[in-house]
Amino acid sequence: MEAVGSISRRKEKFLFRQILDRRELLGPLMLAPAIVYIFLLIGFPFFLALYYSFSNVTTGSSSLTFVGLENFRGILQSATFRRALRNTFVFTFASQILVMILAKILALALNKQFRGKSIVRFLILLPWVSPISLGTIGWKWMYDSLYSVINWTLQAVGIFGPGTWPMWLGEPTLAMTAVVLVHVWRTLPFATVIILAGLTAIPQEILDAASVDGAGLWRRTFQVVLPLLIPILCVAVLFGVVFTFTDMTVIYVLTRGGPYDTTQVLGSYAFQMGILGGDLGEGAAISLFLFPLLAIVAILMLRIARRAEVE
Questions:
Q1: How far apart are CA 200 and CA 113, in angstroms?
Q2: Cβ(147)–Cβ(168) under 8 Å?
Q3: Whose C-alpha in 84, 91, 129, 306 is 20 to 30 A from the C-alpha of 263?
Q4: 79-310: in CATH 1.10.3720.10
C-alpha cells in the first residue's frame, strides 16, 4: 500500500511539474480565479439586469413577461429620465474638472519636501478611506437649513450679510453645487495619489535638463511635466468618471434627488424606480444606459493615453 501511495504521489508531482513547465496551461490556470471572480461580481449582475430590462418584473411578483423595448421606450419619454441624464453629465464633468485641477496642485505641493509632509498626506487621504455615508452625513449637517456651519462661518467673516442665509439643499442650483463639492471632497485624494505617483516617476534628469536650458517653473510645468503626465491623467480621469457616473451615495444621502429631481442622476433614479418603486425592469433599463456611456469614455481615455505613450 505504501508503494502504491508513493507511486501516486510521484505521478501527481510529475503532472504538477508538467503544468508549471507549459505556459499555455499555466497562464489560463492562474487567470481562472480572477476571471471567475469578475464574472460573479460584474458579469452575472450585468446579464441579469439585461434580462430584467426586457421584462415587466417587479419586486411584488414572482413571474415576469417579456415586453421587448417597452421599458426603454417608456424611460426615453420620461422628463425625469432626461433630466437625470443631463444632471449626470453636469455632476460628472463639473466635479472631475475641479478634481483634476485641485489634484494637480496638491500633487505638486506634496512632491516637495517639507516638515510634516506625512501628516499632510494622511489628512488628504482621510476623506477617501473614511466611510462615504458617514462623511456625507457630516456634510449634510454642515448644509443644514437652520444650523449650517458654513453659513454661520461665512457670516462671521463678513462674506454673508445678516439677512443672507442660503438653503444649500433646498434650492436647485445650490443643491447641485453642494453635491458636486462633496463629491470633489470625496474623490480628490484618489486623484491626488495617482498624479503624485506619476510625478515621482518622472526622471529628475529631465527636469534638471529643462532648468539648464532656461525653462522656468511655468514652462517646466506645462511643456515638460504635463505632457509626461498625460497617460497618468487619462487613468485618473477614467477612474474618476466611472466612480462619478455610478455613484449615488452622495446624492441619495444629501438630497434624495431633490429638490424636484434637480439633482437626480441615473444611478439614484434607477435605484428609486427599481428598488424603492419596485419596478425592477424599468430600473434595470435605466441603469443599462450607463454602460455605453462609460464604454465610450473608457475607449477615448485609453486611446489618448496610448497616443501619449507612443509620442
A1: 12
A2: no
A3: 129
A4: yes
Q: How far apart are CA 86 and CA 93, in angstroms?
A: 11
Distance CA 274, CA 79 (A): 17
| Cβ atoms of 192 and 106 closer than 8 Å | yes
Query: 87 CB contacts (<8 Å, ≥6 apart)?
Result: 176, 262, 263, 264, 265
Q: Could you give phi then psi for residue 95, rounded to 5 degrees?
A: -70, -40
| Whole-angstrom distance, CA of residue 142 vs CA of residue 37 | 40
- Residues 268 and 252 sit within 8 Å (Cβ to Cβ): yes
Cis ω on the peptide bond leading into residue 259 (within 30° of 0)? yes
Start-to-end Cα distance in the chain: 67
Domain ranges of the chain: 79-310
* Full pLDDT tens readout for the chain, 311 residues: 444 445 555 555 556 566 566 666 667 777 888 888 888 887 888 888 888 888 888 887 777 788 888 888 888 888 888 899 899 889 988 999 999 889 888 888 888 877 877 888 888 888 887 888 888 888 988 888 888 888 888 888 888 777 788 888 888 888 999 999 999 999 888 888 888 888 887 777 777 677 776 767 677 777 777 777 777 888 888 888 888 887 888 888 888 888 888 889 888 888 888 888 888 888 888 888 878 877 887 787 777 767 755 55
The single-letter code of the amino acid at 29 is L
Give the span between the Cα atoms of 243 and 263, in whole angstroms: 17
Q: Provide the 3-class DSSP secondary structure of residue 16.
A: helix
